[in-house]
Amino acid sequence: MRIIRMDEKTKKNLLDDLLKRSPNNYDSYTASVNEIINTVKNKGNQAVFEYTKQFDKAEISEENIKVTNVEIEEAYRLVDQSLIDVMRKALLNIKSYHEKQRQYSWFDSTPNGTILGQKVTPLEKVGVYVPGGKAVYPSSVLMNIIPAKVAGVSKIVMTTPPDKDGKVNPNTLVAAKEAGADEIYKVGGAQAIAALAFGTESIPKVDKIVGPGNIYVALAKKSVYGYVNIDSIAGPSEILVIADETANPRFVAADLLSQAEHDELASAILVTTSEELAEKVSREVEQFVSNLSRKEILEKSLENYGYILLVKELEEAISVANEIASEHLEIVTKDPFTVMTKIKNAGAIFIGEYSSEPLGDYFAGPNHVLPTNGTAKFFSPLGVDDFIKKSSIISYSREALEPIHKDIIQFAEAEQLTAHANSIKVRFE
Question: Is 420 annotated for ligand binding?
């Protein structure tokens, strides 16, 4: 990995480089995505079947688009029981963590007849997109469905692309069944997002769409936002490690590569105060890459977006981390908890040398659907809040309204909204 001494110019160039990976910069795909969305919106199932044949080489029809109980039972026979047991352990951790995020309706009243409150209502229908293609992610199935179940969503509709034989990966099906998906449909890509957003003869329209996907899926979610809600427009994965001379270079190198292997646009950055650590990590990375299965992806990712940044002080490392606002942030320093208190922008923070990023991806419990491309400055991880909506409650008696009614009238007339003012006046004529 390249080792760079950090300065203001380097920081600016690095940030500009990382932002190039944002789905917002792939306008060349937008026209194709919008054409798919409009065709599905107008032609429904027919368009879904044609696009599935074109992109996934699968013959899908009204008879087989929905995954059956027989197919799910077959998936359970194909998946190793030990993996199912691991999924169930992870599921319990994820569920337990998200149950602590629950919000409840509340009401406050006063003796003069004022009642103010907030009513919390789960969304009725949610669509969960699960990618196929380069890799299969049953962990993402759990992370997207479980908080929706905890929130109380009535119906969870999952879509995922089939293989050329019209089958869904058995690991994906088992994870969906364990997590509590109500319906599963064999459709992927932008056409799946359009089907969930507008509905077809087979696939119901939902209120919100969540889940990761390729650039076509990301842009499709962006395009249908407003017709439905979405979780976020996810960019490529990223990790940033803050480390000092106490860090284990082998651990750090392994953690950097755990994200670099996702795809060629993934980002892996080490920010350190130790030149010796930087050199050792660089050597460890080279050794690991030569023996790992996704060698070509790793090499491309590190060539494009892999950096070891040398800084003079830990405070500078913290400043860089807050500026980059990484999806995953590991802190491997002498006093990591003190460093953590100074971090303002990160999707998930991993503290200490045994809290490696894959622990969060699969098992610990916090959600691994995280803000990317600097959006951790204003977005949060996927959670129960993403699957609820809130209504304000207002109730005033005549006795409560009377002392303040002239104030409201004055405010309304100042805005020249006389009908607003009249609505209050008539009650005290």
Answer: yes
